[in-house]
Amino acid sequence: MFKQILLPLDFEHQELYDKVVEAALRLCHPEGRINLLYVNSARIHHAAAPLYSRELISKLDQAVEQQMADFMQAQIPAEHRGRLWIRHGVVYDTILARAKKHEADLIIMPASRPGAETYLLGSNSSKVVRHAKCAVLVVR
Q1: Per the database record, which ranges form the UspA domain (predicted)?
Q2: pLDDT per residue over 11-29, tens digit each?
């Protein structure tokens, strides 16, 4: 049983969220917490990044924060609700840093089937699996 579980959400794999939450609840210690993390990589990996204003980024963060709060309220029982974080940066680096800083003992990530591009570049989930200092569960 794990006391600090980190769920990085990216809203691209929403069809897997039920499986992710089910796994988290099964593995969560009776006194454990499930924490949510969203990493906004728009300024890192997007060609239009220089055009993003602080106001636009702030509005996007507020919308994501509301979506995460709604998700937490609907999916995670009150006794297991942890914290919500929105961070900006490289996805896998940010997940690893947050897990280390918050002393997560389990990361549960959704992942799609790999495409040709992930064989060459590697996916976020594979990089997290390789470098995390805690257990990692990848849900498909």
Answers
A1: 1-140
A2: 777 888 999 999 999 999 9
